[in-house]
Amino acid sequence: MGGTGVLGSFEELVLLAVLRKGSDAYAVTIRRELSERSGSDVAMGSVYATLDRLEEKGLVGSELEEPTGSRPGRPRRFYAVLPAGHAALDETRSIRAAMWRGVKVDPATGAGS
Amino acid sequence: MSGHGHPPRLPARLARWVLSPDDADRLLDALDEEYLRHQRLQRTRVGADLWYGGQVFRSLPPLLLRRWERRRQRGARASRRSGPSGKADALLTDLRHLSRTLRRSPTTAGAAILTLSLTLGAGTSIFAVVDAVLLEPPPFEDPEALVALGERDPDEPEATPRTAVGVATFDAWRDAAGPQAELEAFDPTNLTLTELGAAERVSVTDVTPGFLALLGVTPALGRLFGPDDAGRPVVILSHTFWRSRLAGDPAVVGRRLVLGGHAHTVVGVLPERFFFALDAGALWRPLSLAPPRAAQDDAPVRVIARLTGASAPGELTASLDEVSRRASPPASVVAMPLTAAIIGDSGGVLQLLAGAAALAMLIAFINLAGLLLLRSVDRRRELSVRRALGAPPSETTRQLLLEALALVGAGILGGVLLAWWITPTVGRFALEFGGLAQRDIGVGWRACGAVGLAALACASACVAVPALAGDRTRLVDLLHRGATPSAGDLGVRRAFVAGEVALAFVLLLSMALLGRSLLDVLAVDPGFDSRGVLKLQVSLPEATYGSPERVTAFQSALRDALGERLGRHAVALVDEIPLAGGGGRDLVRASPSDAGQEAVVRTASPGYFEVMRIPVVAGRAFNERDRDGVPPRVVVSESLARRLLPPGPPVGRSVWLEGAGQPAEIVGVVGDVKHRSLAEPAPPTVYRSGLQAPSASAVIVVRAERPGPAVVATVGEEVRRLDGDVPVYRVRSMREVVDASPGVPARRLLTAAFTAFALLGVVLSAIGLFGIAAHDVARRRAELALRMALGAAPTRILGWTLMRSAWTVGAGLVAGGVLAIGAVRGLADGPVTTGPPEALGLGAAAAGLLVATAAAAVLPAAVRAARSDPGTALRGG
Q1: Pair type for strands B262-269 and B234-237
Q2: Global model pTM greater than 0.80
Q3: How far is A16 from chain B (nearest CA, A)?
Q4: Which residue of B160, B505, B600, B745 pairs with B685 in a disulfide if CB–CB is 3.0 to 4.6 A?
């Protein structure tokens, strides 16, 4: 994939997780969201590497927040999906949908049409 | 290792050590936050520690990869500014990656390359010999129409045919063949070459004038023989002789060579490509079949024929049988295709060698496939993450292909260099051991091409297995699992190792059977004592030693002189020593009218039986009184006395030798001696007294206490003192003669080759088993720790690890056993005569050896598994 073309499968999942977490989207919550929804323990490093990559492509933006009285602890980097990210997700979804149209798969037997 | 509430320190330390400070900080901050939550959720510290360690380990590859990507992008931006294309950059990156991968485990890569080089080198070289000997047609015109003719006893249709026939038979055959075939004859001999440096013996082939034209040879220089040349002193040179002895003199035609004391004129030079493998003569002379040659019954010739038109070998033999059946003794004619006659027994040996080389190459490739599979497992996680991050799937395969090509390419290069270096030697050995005429064999493009193509095909297969296995893996599984091989990967690897075990078993069993047959043959009593006996050849030129009296005078003087210096009972002369492949059979009769018995006829001087320690069973050995002027006297072997003579003491009886005018008196009976090969029964033998029937070509046998070189020097001095133009040549110990006798070198060569290949198979199987066991234990470390924590005894863990490998070895042995049935059958057609019970015993021994080696290979991993501390294993992940 290149530019804003079809997203890699993990890239797509990370972007969706950022959208789902809204204003609370930072690495820990994004990873938690991915793990809970996929049912597998996703590695933190994969999340960081992908966020880094998406940011470089201009699909997400980030902001560093210093700890405050209401939220003590370490500084956190919060992520938000940029318009290009929305467009990429939309494009990926329509390509997927186009590809899925008329296709039936049966995971039990492995048969498809 | 960690305090309450604090994450384990070891993984954190690892992350700080491996990652950049920024990456390590943000990863560990996030993991610390999650660690507390996991402690709450899982309620045990061990569970949270395990999770934390796993997270760190699994986070390292994507973060490292990301750093590498960033660096590459910076590099790409820089290089875009400076020019090179993206493709070249990608290739460069791939190559850089490759060199890093190979450097990461240089021993494994080096071992794989070395294994490939050795097996491919040996394989190429053996295939080059097979190609030259078996596949390439002989350099004759229409070789399919050429047959070699021989005779055999009609009552023994399985016997090896005699290829030497009398001149009278040849003439009668020629008449009987009529228009069906053209027949020509040849007679290999040795002559002394003088006046061209020091006197030396050269191999000369005397041929009927039409012989070379029948083969379809065009001379490189001069001409071939014409019908008028029969018996004239002219000579044609082989290309090798012309190049090596006459420096390729372009004006050689018309030059004079002194052979056997007679001047000969060179009339031609044969082409370089020409060789007549039945007898590689250095010089060729025209043979006259006119009297007196025709009257000489002890000078037989060998016959070849070119079938004309549509006649089949069967029709020709039917016509010739008319002649031979009426002859005395009656014989039946055998026609072998010349190509088959040239290859002879060596075909089987070469096929076995090629089989062994193919098995060894297969083992090397299974080893390579296993290695690449492990590599791909090591890197699959990294590659899968890259794929998920957007790298095209082809990159995975490309990287693997590049690595396989690099390994196989280096292996092929090493193999070809090795083959190039060793093939001339291998060829020389193979030709010598196969009893074929010597010629130069080098690595041709055909052998290199065939082995190279096979190697590349195998390399592609080796890449396909891990690449396909990698494609089936789902990303989620990979992210979930640590960087250890999956059960499926280990299954494929186990199958590979089982295959190696199977092939190693086949090679080991073959090696044992061949070694056993070699020992069996060497244990055969040849009928004489070869230890401490030296043989030297001395031949007297016909021109100066034309009469038997002159030969006897020279030989007696030499024997006396050597007796003085080396010991009276230490020196003797014989026309031909046992096991040197000489012919000289004749018909012996008990009375002039009886059917007779075929026997080997030898001429021996007094002292021969003492020197060779051939036991005198009855009567006496030859002495100085068995000379000219008294009736002919002979000594016979036990088997001849038993088969030919009526019951009663043989000494004092008479026998009639073919062609001799009067009967010969038996003065003694000696033990049987193996004349042709150790594996064949000893033929009946008649010894004539060397003082009565001297042979101009004689072998001196010496049993001396003094070292070999001193004996050779003494013999040389005495021969030179008697006649400066007589060369001493073919000096060998009798032990060497036995070792070079038919069947022994082939068995030795095969045993050595199979031993080397079997050793390779065993070592590679052991390395494979070691690798699997180590990976298996690493993969199941947590499980094993848990079992031990739950109370499993270390011995059970040890047994469990050993058992898992036992299944692999067992499967390999079963498959090997099935394959071995074919191998044993193949060997039984060739040199191995071992019966099934012994083969089973040797098979059990080979299996035992493999099991012991396997146990030794697996034990370290099993012990490590049994000794591991559950706490450390669980915390460390």
Answers
A1: parallel
A2: no
A3: 15
A4: B600
